[in-house]
Amino acid sequence: MTKISEFLDMGGYAGFIWPSYGAVIAVLAVLLWLSLRGLKAAERELAQLEGDAPRARRARPTDDGAARP
Question: pTM of the entire structure?
Answer without folding.
Answer: 0.64
